[in-house]
Amino acid sequence: MLSSLRSFFMTNSKLTGRQLYDKLGRPKKVVAPMVDGSELAWRMISRKYGADLCYSPMLHSRLFATDDKYREKMFGPMDGSEVDRPLIVQFCANDPDYLLQAAKHVEDRCDAVDLNLGCPQGIARKGHYGSFLMEDWDLISKLINTLHRNLKIPVTAKIRVYDDWEKSLAYAKMCLDAGAQFLTVHGRTREMKGQKTGFANWKLVKYIKDNLPPETVFLSNGNILYPEDIDRCIKEVGCDAVMSAEGNLYNPGIFWTETEDIEKQFPRIDRFVREYFEVVAQCEGSESRRCFKSHLFKSLRNFLSIHTDVRAEIAKLSRNSPLEEFEAVVKMIEDVVAKIYQQENIAELDQVRVGEIENWGGRYRDVPYWRLQPYFRRVDGKDGREVIQDSMKRVMESEEVAKRQKLEGTK
Length: 411
What we know:
Layout: H1 2-13, H2 17-23, E1 29-31, H3 40-48, E2 53-60, H4 61-66, H5 68-74, E3 87-92, H6 96-104, E4 112-117, H7 122-127, H8 137-150, E5 155-160, H9 165-178, E6 180-186, H10 202-210, E7 217-221, H11 228-237, E8 241-244, H12 246-250, H13 262-265, H14 269-282, H15 287-299, H16 301-306, H17 308-315, H18 323-340, H19 346-349, E9 353-357, E10 363-366, H20 384-410
């Protein structure tokens, strides 16, 4: 009886989605939950470049609930502190009890807890979590509702879509009915990963948004290459906010929408790495240091393909390397970029050139390789830009199929 009363009062005094959204300052630009990608230092540097809200990496709920060492490593003393808010902590789970135990450890150190229903990787298949729960709606409902009834803070959910538009909508409604206060919809199916990633379907995401209760706090995830794509997504989808994973991972400047400032939107590699290193040096624990190397490999991808000597030095770093070794790499990068800027025609070379509007609605940029830039995934030897064109055709075909199904259903 006491437990039931406690759950009743917690559920009824908890912030609604709109109240939480307002409390967080109505965020528009959101760092996605990324394993080895959205740890403390990266969240902090992303906020400096305009991110309004950050998610933690996906944390394993059973391990977080039962393993002190895992919990201390993955969520250290600075995680969720004043320098790390607003923050939503994400868990993967397939057991409501373990999920609740895990969430209880962080409910006083974050603004909400998110359930990962989108991870499409093989490890998620093996562990039966993420997008591999999409066939078990009863379990998903129990996971969300257990948190909703028993946590002081709200619960949110991040999902992928099905090829079937109506099923995708029903899935989103089920998550909301179970108690999710925010809903993030990644406009790709579970099969769209790696070499099959393709183009996220904004039209399907918009269809879901338009058919949910109007008070729903709705985030869209997918297809953000440049800062201008954020406002374009908000207008086309009608979402409250836009989440970026890979785009942010290769260039946090993707969140800089206040001004068209090349130094903020496509920062010089030397300046960015120095700034990022100084953030890492402030962070307690080992996770931010461990991820430093992988972040440099991603964000400096084009630069390192030319300056392979720098790549070799980065490869030597480990989480146990002293900060002096980290800084030596930073200094090496600064020296290489300084030589680039000694060229007589650098003012002409150091320009971001904007292309014409493409049929997917955005514009490509040609960015000098010594600046952070978007990532175009190559598929089967095709350039990333070709992949976007091919994927756009499939999105348009999907829309036509959905229209035909809707017409047939009204006959």
